[in-house]
Specification:
11% strand; two-stranded antiparallel ribbon; 73 residues; 2 helices; SnoaL-like domain-containing protein; alpha+beta; NTF2-like_dom_sf
Length: 73
């Protein structure tokens, strides 16, 4: 993938992120994608901060606005 294609991919990702397109973002990720939600775990202000994963033990499939569970094999 060249630099222009990489930039376009990031722009598309950020566009979905800005619009709240969770399912579109998850569609762009591989099943083993992981990310970190910043904050301090076990604190009332940031109760959902932690390692997240599209499919697997840290999966986002419990989120009510996501259909990620249907995308995992």
């Amino acid at each position: 993938m060249n630099i222009t294609a990489n930039k376009n991919l990031v722009k598309r990702f950020l566009s979905h992120f800005q619009k709240g397109g969770v399912n579109e973002i998850l569609d762009m990720m591989s099943d083993d994608a992981t990310w970190w939600v910043n904050g301090k775990p076990n604190r009332p202000l940031f109760p959902d901060c932690a390692r997240k994963q599209k499919c697997g033990p840290y999966s986002t499939i419990s989120l009510p606005f996501s259909t990620a569970g249907s995308q995992c094999s």
